[in-house]
Every structure is written in C-alpha cells, then in structure tokens.
Automatic annotation (TrEMBL):
This is Non-hydrolyzing UDP-N-acetylglucosamine 2-epimerase. The gene is wecB. Its EC number is 5.1.3.14. Pfam families: Epimerase_2. It comes from Muricoccus vinaceus. Keywords: Isomerase. It comes from the Bacteria.
Amino acid sequence: MLPEIHLVAAARPNLPKLAALLHALAEAPPFCTPVVVHTGQHHDAAMFGGHLADLGLGAPDVSLGVSGGGHAGLTGRTMMACAALWEARRPALVVVAGDVDGTLAAALAARKLGIPVAHLEAGLRCGDHDMPEEINRRAVDAVSTLLWAPDEATAARLLAEGHGPGAVRAVGNAMIDSVRRALPAARGRALPEGLAPGGYGALTLHRPANVDSPAALGALLEAVGRAARHLPLAWPMHPRTAGRLSEFGLSVPEGVMRLPPLGYLDFLGLLACARLVATDSGGVQEEAWALDLPCLTLRPSTERPVTLEAGSNRLVPVAGLEAAVAAVLAGDAPQARPIPLWDGKAGTRMVAHLRERLGAGGAADASHAWASAQQGCAA
Ligand code: UDP
C-alpha cells in the first residue's frame, strides 16, 4: 500500500496552492496516496466549496468541521481535531500551505505527533511582526521538515535562518501553476453586468489592519471613493470586510460596484479584464504579476517583494491610492519582468522533492528518508 500524504486545506487562499501539488501528483507515476483534509476555517460555497470544482478538485476526503472563534480558539480546536485524526490515521507526511490559522494548527499538531511537515509557500516575510499571518509563517517554518520556497532569494533566507539544505527547496510559485491552468476557462467567463473589459479596476481588501477599525476602514473607503472618480471599481467583498462595514455602519462609495466573493474562475476572469487591481491580498499580488496587471498594494510592506522588483506591484499608502490609480491610467505602468521559477512547474518540483524524500518504495523507506530530511533542519 502506498503511504498517505495529508494535504491540509483550511481557507480559500490555500486551495490554488494545494491544487498545483494535487494535479502534479495525479500526473506523476503513483508513489503516495494524497488525502485532502479540510479543517473548516472557510467552509461555505462562496469561500471554499465553490472553488474546488473551479480548480479541478473533488470534495475533501476528510472534513474536520472546525470554524469560527478568535485566533486562539480556532487554532486550538483545529489542533485537537487534527491530532485526533492523525492518532487514528497516521500519514507519512502532512502538507500545509500558506499562513492562515489552520496552517499553523495543522503543522503544530503533526509535529507534536512526530509526523513530518512540508510547508508549501515557505519563507515569506514582510517584516511586520504584529501581522497575524507573519506570526503563522514564522512559526510554521520553524517546525517544518520540508520548506518549499517560491523563489531562490526566499530559499536563501530560509537557509540563513538555519534550515538545512536538504530541507529547503526553491520550487517556484504554486499560485502561478493554478493561474496558468485556469486562465483559458477564466477568460471565457462573463463579467458582472455593467463592467466592460478594460473599463474598471478590481479591488479586494480584508487585512485586519485595513478593515478592523472604524478609523482605518473609513479612511480606506474615502480613498477608494476618490480613486473611483478616475476609474470605476469592482469590489468582490471578503466576508470579514462585509461584516465590518455593517458593524461600523459604513457603506461603499459611489463609483464602486460591490460584489459577493467570486469563485476562482470568475475572479480570475475579473482580474484578466481589469485595467488595474488595488488589493491587500497576498495571492492577488502574485496573480496580477501572472496577468501583467498593474497591482497597487494597500499595505506598508509585502512578503512578496519579488513582485515589486518585477515591476508589476507597488506599495501604496491608503491616502495615495487616487494618485496611484491616476498614474497607471496615465500610462505609468511598466511591463512585468519575468520572475525565475514562476513558470507553472512548481507542482512538478514539489513532487520531485517528495519522491526524493519518500523514495520509490513507500512507507518503510519513508521513515528513513524523513529522518534524514529532519536532520538537515536546525529546529
Ligand atoms: N479570490 C477569489 N475570489 C474573490 C477574491 C479572491 O477566488 O472574490 C482568490 C484569489 O484569486 C486568490 C485568493 O482568493 O487566489 C486569495 O485569497 P485571499 O485574498 O483571501 O487571501 P491571501 O492571499 O491574502 O492570503
């Protein structure tokens, strides 16, 4: 019997990353049995279920049904559910993706049980130690056995942090694999009524620093309203932001089309036809690069500096959004430069690393192989 590898899907941004690995595994000669474990952090059709088919994925194999609560409650309950699963059904390896609370919970639960962990999208750092996702990134990397970095500079940082060369691999960016796979279908999607190709900007906002206080969200809405005088904006709204808007009694300014969270293909279709995107999302910064779409990131820092270097992305203070939109419309938007390894082959490289570590033979070989992988890990 082939060893099981459990891939943990907690929230929406995990799915395009895991899809790249799952498709590459399906295309490779079988050497393991992938099992998708859904923790439940995002769980409705708009934020999770509807994305599976868009990404060519089936229903999760295991659903833990843990959602809601603050960071500590969600992390703790997810750890307990993961541990119960893996005590009963022990995988050879757990793959966690990105930086959400479910990612951290699963990584900690697995390692406490002595199960090796691979971190898909390892090594990202924005330097803002107060950002919940930055805490998760650092903690997950610290306990991971294999660290899959999206580029060489990120892999070098992980080595400098003390992870062993056997553990760290620059595999490329899994998000780009998924964009490439989905783009033909996404381009065939109809735009929401009232939008014409090239005649609007896309907007996504959900980071706590931007939306969790009336002052921050109010300032953001004012800036968005001023920017929308130059270019109509289409805003598929994250449930967190929608909740804050109604909690604070705020509303979307004129010139902004509020939309529900879109499915992966519809959202990619929206981006593909947009004039620009303004966002505080991590994944959208990468997708904008893939689409050669000017990206204005409404944050003081990014964990994806390679997109700044490539010219597709700019950090913009909230008060500077209007000027930044006007600049792009005036033609100040260089063509995105290539980024090495962002070539749609990240899934294949992850599979190659797994095969090296797991060996051809399965579970018996795995224990030795994982042991040597861990020896390279300073943590
Ligand atoms: N996304 C989507 N529908 C939307 C907005 C975003 O499918 O209405 C996708 C987007 O294509 C990207 C992912 O959600 O793949 C990014 O997730 P999010 O911005 O929630 O998280 P982050 O990347 O910031 O962690």
